[in-house]
Design a protein that fits this description.
5 strands; 3-stranded antiparallel beta sheet; 32% strand; single chain
Length: 71
Amino acid sequence: SSVYKSVNNKAVSASVVTGERKNNMVEITSALTAGDIVITTGQMKIKPDAEVKALPYQKIPAVTGLNNGSR
């Protein structure tokens, strides 16, 4: 598997090895270190060495009241 991370405001591909999976989380056992900035949106459009800008993390609130098809 691979992910993109931001290094000096440039997109860099990192080949990662995954470990344990629990709920919706996956352990990454190689290629990333504490403090790395992982690109989490736009992965399908990004290219190596593209200029990127890290934005502060914002928790997205849960969406409620969606129409689930029932009436």
